[in-house]
Design brief:
Layout (H helix, E strand, L loop, with lengths): L13 H22 L4 E6 L4 E4 L1 H7 L3 H4 L15 H12 L6 E7 L5 E12 L5 E10 L1 H23 L5 E3 L5 E4 L5
Antiparallel strand pairs: 1-2, 1-5, 3-4, 4-5, 6-7
Length: 186
């Protein structure tokens, strides 16, 4: 008759458990940095689904992560109508393995607020070279753009005054050499 036999083994998994804790801790650390950054951080898969949008993106757009990732290209509603095709072209290029690293465009929130963002893109590819996903970081440059616009408007106003003034106007350097003068000075 066969005697009953029991075979047992054991192994110490302490190191593996510690490693798992460290990996989880690192993942949480990176997630906190991304979620609390003062920029939009998004990740879009090759089907056009924005499966990751940080808190800044969610707060600005007024949509939750669940809404944003609910359907492919949901995020195109953040774009002004006239910019949609050019941004979709960025995605098409990424699908072909080409990344447009930098561009700028506006995003519009659910409430209608519009901001201008400078985007930096990174393409992550599968082993076969096809797109796995694209990560994008958008920095709000709205205030900078508004200041540059005001400077340009003031420059144009100055040039009009300078060129069409009936009074003679001259611009001199610190050594009193004429740099420029208008026609009324002649």
């Amino acid at each position: 008759n066969n005697p009953l036999r029991i075979l047992g083994t054991h192994s110490d998994i302490t190191f593996r458990k510690e490693l798992e804790k460290e990996i989880l801790k690192e993942k949480e650390f990176i997630s906190k940095i991304i979620d609390n950054s003062n920029a939009i951080v998004v990740v879009i898969d090759s089907e056009g689904t924005m499966f990751r949008a940080n808190k800044y993106a969610q707060n600005f757009t007024g949509y939750t992560q669940e809404e944003i990732s609910s359907v492919p290209y949901f995020w195109t509603r953040f774009l002004p109508f006239d910019a949609r095709s050019s941004v979709i072209d960025v995605m098409k290029e990424a699908k072909n393995g080409n990344i447009i690293k930098h561009f700028r465009n506006s995003w519009i929130s659910k409430s209608g607020e519009e901001k201008i963002f400078e985007w930096s893109n990174m393409l992550v590819q599968k082993d076969d070279g096809s797109m796995d996903y694209m990560a994008s970081i958008g920095i709000d440059i709205t205030e900078k753009e508004q200041i540059q616009k005001r400077i340009l408007e003031q420059k144009q106003e100055f040039e009009l005054i300078f060129n069409y003034s009936k009074d003679g106007i001259a611009i001199l350097d610190l050594n009193t050499k004429f740099i420029k003068f208008n026609s009324s000075l002649l």
